[in-house]
Amino acid sequence: MAKVTHEFDLYGKHYSLETGELAKQATGECLVKCGDSTVNVTVVVSKERKDYDFFPLTVDFIEKMYAVGRIPGGYLKREARPSEKATLTARMIDRPLRPSFPEGFRNEVQVVAMPLVADQVNSVDTISVMGASAALTVGGVPFEGPLACVRIGRNTDTDEFLVNPTYEERKTSDLDLELAGSASYISMLEAGAKEIPEEDMLAAMSFGQEAIAAFCEEEKKFFDKVRATNGEFPHREYVLDEPVPEVHERVFAHYDEMSTALKDTDKLSRIDKIEALKESIQAEFSEEEQQEWNRAIPVELKSLEKHAMRRMVVETGERVDGRKANEVRPLYIKGNYLPLVHGSGLFQRGQTQVLSVCTLGMLNEWQRLDTIEPVDGKRYIHHYNFPPYCTGETGRIGSPKRREIGHGALAERALLPVIPSEEEFPYTIRVVSEVMESNGSSSMASTCGSTLALMDAGVPIKRPVSGVAMGLIQEEGKTVVLTDIQGLEDFLGDMDFKVTGTTKGITAMQMDNKATGLTPEIFRQALQQAHEGRMFILDAMLDAVPKPREHTKASAPQIISLHIATDKIRDVIGSGGKVIRGIQEDTGAAIDIQEDGSVFISGTATAGKEAAERIKQIVKVPEVGEEYTGRVVGIQPFGAFVELLPGKDGLLHVSRVAKGHVNKVEDVLSIGDEVKVKVLDVDEKGKISLDRLDKPDAPAADTNRHHDTHGERHDHRDHEPRERHANHGFHRHPGDQGALGGNGQHTPRRHHEG
């Protein structure tokens, strides 16, 4: 295949699609660019059909640190397991592709998106969907394309929607909406928003659909160029699993039995009845028939269950658990569920139960991110766990799967707009949602449970957040929107549309759509029902936990924040970190100093206050007229140096150490003596002059001080001068800094908020 390139401009940005030069042994390949950001997308389809009753699609997004000119961290210095962002991007590519393949396609498909350049201006995630669509098409793979993905932001100054905004533009946007689909329908949606109204979200979705159509049109122009240069795309034969009429008739003869089995409100009991019925139906086929139709029989059994459930909804308006279309399942809500932990909440909706636990930590415990995006880390972290016991099954418990990462990211996105700023609440916040029982909408239960845990922990969130999952049934020309879907309605329905928000507006959305006929009216109805469901759930949450705690729990770290001048940072840290380390060891508090002079102290109330007081003493500049009880740290012929505060010394002149004439300072003072002094003067260089408040009488003159033991007189001028230290003639203690200067070179730790 000869190289073909198509360049175009859309919505103020330059794009290109290219094929024919790289990865020529793959089934299909496309190099896609936005600005200088470049992603190579390859597709390989297996030659053999697999004996699966599902479509075996795998999507990998492989981050390469060379794309941003960095060497990976860690001992091995190579990319290891995918980051959470890479996993989420792989899901973003997978979700619009999967429903676009024909029914019965059973060949393995692997899509690999590999960023080669990430210019730190334009994101590489959304363009990867367009690259995958192009690679599939030029490779002759049967699917409903072209597809594209766009990110929609909004300029808050002009209210203008932005297509694929830069990272800088996204910082000031109140909307982060990712949409994917074809020119005529949306199949995937992800959104984070700063509490925006439903009408604004609908407008953004409509604008996004137009943008997707524009990109799909450019893909078609690219395909025309490829055909003009290299001829028609390769035609490959892929055998599809076709329905067998006889199997269909024999299985669907049990339609009424399946309808009866579905009418059980208890999930496990219903599953048992359905599985028992499927086994009895399969037993009606002979061993030879089961072997011949080993794929057709399971497909028809699944189809029987699907159609029975869907017809029940559209014909009777009744769902398998007896609810109406817009009805929320029974709720059970309890805050402060666990002792000692910093915050907890239990949220149950029907047979979906989530326990969320909040933990507070120092700001220096923020999560550092090693990705190709210009994001250093985040201080609000949400993790979601879905153990096998929550569905009554056995299984391996280990690293989080893609689904767990995706659901955790959604709940995190839902709550991030209401998390207080670092200045308002100087903590790193981690919430973990443990799914104890699942029958659909566990991610939305996670959002609700996490709100309870945050409030129980005393986090001053702006407003509480609730969430609900919406579903859709399109059958026999009828459309029904379902509120608070359970697992079966998600699995066999046409849409899974999750919406979270506050009383003010939407904070996050996620949608996967299998239907192609979604109109703006359907989306409007879904958002309206979602709003009603969210408010119903939120009222129940506030009945259980009316507001956040006034103060954090005693078990949580107490954080004291203060601000010091940046030129005092090294004084607090000390040479080699000696000073700050000493404070932490003596008090038991943890101290985090940021480069802008912000200081955060964590520990028990007593430890934190003691550490804060010591830091205040270090940075304090003594003022004229202030009185101190200081310690003599150095003696010279001209006076004594008195430590007023840690690292702050002043000179008590020999003329002021006592009443009357003093010949030698040592006659009155010794190293380590405590004296009460008053600040007389602080010069422009910071040198401090002191006066003694508790002056004793000067000692009586020693008449023999000029005679040796033999009675011979010596002139004091005959003595060699005393050796003086360079620093005002006395030995400084290691780490001492202040008016006499310091040499600490430690650079404070930088903190970034995600």
Write a compact overview of the structure shown:
Helix content is 29%, strand content 27%. With 754 residues, it is an alpha+beta fold.
Structural class: alpha+beta
Query: Number of helical segments?
Result: 16
Classify the helix fraction into a percent range: 25-40%
CATH class of the largest domain: Alpha Beta
Oligomer: single chain
Total discrete domains: 5
Cα-based radius of gyration, to the nearest Å: 36 Å
- Could you give a short account of the major beta sheet? 8 strands, antiparallel
* Contiguous runs where pLDDT drops below 50 for at least 5 residues: 703-754
How far is the first residue's CA from the last residue's CA? Answer: 44 Å
Shape: elongated
CATH superfamily of the largest domain: GHMP Kinase, N-terminal domain
- Order of strands, main sheet, comes to 8-7-9-10-21-20-18-19
Q: Examine the coordinates and then state which fold CATH places here, giving the name of the CATH topology of the largest domain.
A: Ribosomal Protein S5, domain 2
What can you see in these coordinates?
- This protein is an alpha+beta fold.
- The protein folds into five domains: 4-230, Ribosomal Protein S5, domain 2 (2-Layer Sandwich), CATH 3.30.230; 245-316; 331-544, GHMP Kinase, N-terminal domain (Ribosomal Protein S5, domain 2, 2-Layer Sandwich), CATH 3.30.230; 558-619, Ribosomal Protein S8, Chain: A, domain 1 (2-Layer Sandwich); 627-700, Nucleic acid-binding proteins (OB fold (Dihydrolipoamide Acetyltransferase, E2P), Beta Barrel).
- The protein has 16 helices and 29 strands.
- An eight-stranded antiparallel beta sheet has the order 8-7-9-10-21-20-18-19, sandwiched between helices. A six-stranded mixed beta sheet has the order 1-2-3-4-6-5.
- The longest helix has 33 residues, at 198-230.
- The protein is elongated, with a radius of gyration of 36 Å.
- It starts with a strand and ends in a 62-residue tail after the last strand.
